[in-house]
Design a protein that fits this description.
With 192 residues, the protein is α/β, with parallel strands linked by helices. The protein has helices at residues 3-9, 67-74, 145-152, 166-179, 183-191; strands at residues 16-17, 53-55, 83-85, 106-108, 131-133, 158-159, 162-163.
Length: 192
């Protein structure tokens, strides 16, 4: 199967599902069997999964060390990952490794322990990111949470399982003008 065929078919493939497996470290995935769904996983000749979705939700992960290495062991084309579900784990930050998956369009991070709203800035480099969840993290309590995310990640169309409306965009822009100083003005102000 050539890469073009892979891109056309694997979106329809069931996810590689390691949810509810009590996984503590990413390396454990190599020795763990994924959950089976209604449809069997398609595999390449080398035995790697042909899916574009990796579900790691409802585990006890607190970091993503070795994520790239393990993804390469499990997936035939890890660079084509389009959906990663890391919800309900113990992550305290958004690991920069997630920003290396440029085809990522769905990222679930809800129900973790991410404190700082500024962590969202890391995701701005993902050109195809359209759906993001962050609710249930301590950052959600920060003032302007939704507006900050929407003005930082202007391409997303669904945030915390809610569609992003034109009114949301307008509110986020107004909030941005009122709360985020332009860098030029900030630099000038701090050099006086």
């Amino acid at each position: 199967m050539n890469k073009r065929d892979y891109m056309n078919t694997s979106v329809q493939e069931p996810p590689l599902d390691y949810s509810f497996r009590s996984i503590h470290v990413i390396q454990d995935l190599v020795n763990e069997e994924p959950r089976t769904g209604l449809r069997p996983l398609k595999r390449s000749k080398s035995g790697k999964s042909l899916t574009q979705s990796l579900w790691l939700n409802n585990n006890v992960l607190n970091d993503l060390r070795d994520f790239n290495q393990v993804a390469s062991q499990l997936l035939e084309h890890p660079e084509n990952l389009a959906w990663i579900d890391l919800s309900f784990n113990d992550l305290t930050s958004i690991d920069p490794v997630l920003t290396t998956f440029f085809n990522l369009s769905v990222l679930y991070l809800h129900g973790n322990s991410i404190q700082r709203l500024g962590e969202v800035n890391k995701l701005a480099v993902l050109p195809r990111l359209r759906s993001l969840t962050l609710h249930g993290n301590p950052m959600e309590e920060e003032k302007g949470y939704r507006q900050y995310v929407l003005c930082t990640l202007s391409r997303i169309t669904t945030f915390d399982f809610s569609g992003v409306t034109k009114a949301d965009r307008t509110t986020a822009e107004v909030w941005k003008r009122m709360n985020i100083k332009p860098k030029k003005a900030w630099i000038k102000q701090n050099t006086l």
